[in-house]
Specification:
- This protein has 85 residues and is of the alpha+beta class.
- Helix content is 40%, strand content 24%.
- It has three helices and three strands.
- The chain has a three-stranded antiparallel sheet, with helices on one face.
- The chain is globular, with a radius of gyration of 12 Å.
């Protein structure tokens, strides 16, 4: 399980797994708006991480970011850390 500490959002942390074929699974937001974040987690389940990044990058709420944008940043960091292009 991967962990990402968010910045500028009500949620404080995002937990997630990535499959061998680079699909997102087991997304869980810690803190924040429970219903909305459960919905995001369900909607991105099984999607390729590049698709999730494309869909959620740049969405703004407060603090010039959002929980969805933070998930995209977490996935970008995951790719960088693992040398994935």
């Amino acid at each position: 399980m991967n962990s990402y500490h968010t910045n500028g959002t009500c949620s404080k942390q995002i937990l997630f797994d990535v499959t061998d074929d680079l699909k997102l699974t087991n997304v869980k937001f810690i803190g924040g708006c429970s219903g909305n974040l459960q919905a995001i987690a369900k909607l991105v389940e099984g999607k390729p991480i590049d698709e999730v990044v494309s869909l959620l990058s740049g969405i703004k709420c407060r603090g010039n970011t959002s929980c969805g944008d933070q998930l995209a940043r977490a996935l970008i960091g995951y790719k960088e850390k693992n040398g994935i292009k």
